[in-house]
Amino acid sequence: MERSTRQAAIIATAVAIPLAVLVVLVSFWQFSPDEPAAAPASPSPVPQATTPVPMTAAKLTPRAETLCRALLSQLPTALRDRPQRPVTEGTEQNAAYGDPAITLACGIPAPTYPPTDLVSLFDRVCWHAAETPEATVLTTVDREVPIQVTVPKAYEAAAQWTVVFSKPIIETVPKMATPPTGCAGSV
Predict the structure, then answer these.
(1) Domains in the chain: ranges and CATH
(2) How deeply is 118 buried, as exposed, middle or buried, from its count of CB atoms within 10 A (0-12, 13-18, 19+)?
(3) Is the predicted pLDDT of residue 80 greater than 60, yes or no?
(4) Alpha-carbon dihedral 179, 180, 183, 187, rounded to 10 degrees
């Protein structure tokens, strides 16, 4: 009996192994694409200007200079895929990214706007937005030292570009003692 069991096992193995290989090959052939998949195209880098961005530098008080230097030291080296670029003036208070350039200016004069204008809280920083034909200009209204971000019309959702600056602003530029109405959730 033992001999017949052993023979049956050998026959079963001899049939099962080729059958399993055949099933794997048929499955592979059936479910594989007709043509080899093309390698995903690597995103081609967006051409970026490297020339200095023209910016003016506001005269800073010693306190504003200290806060602006602290802020600039914490800014990212790129906004999404747009690298930081040099600026023509005020390297201690100005930064620029990409082409067309998104700019940040620290220590600008406090913004003036009608009290009925909307202010918006984006990631715990309160901003006032103004439109020009070329850009959306967003200025902090809840910080001891005002910060202005200018986003050219070439970019969609201008306010979303300010969010990357929120953490460095919160960490380096204190909130003013009495922020405007509408900025209740700012830090």
Answers:
(1) 62-172 (3.40.1000)
(2) exposed
(3) yes
(4) -10
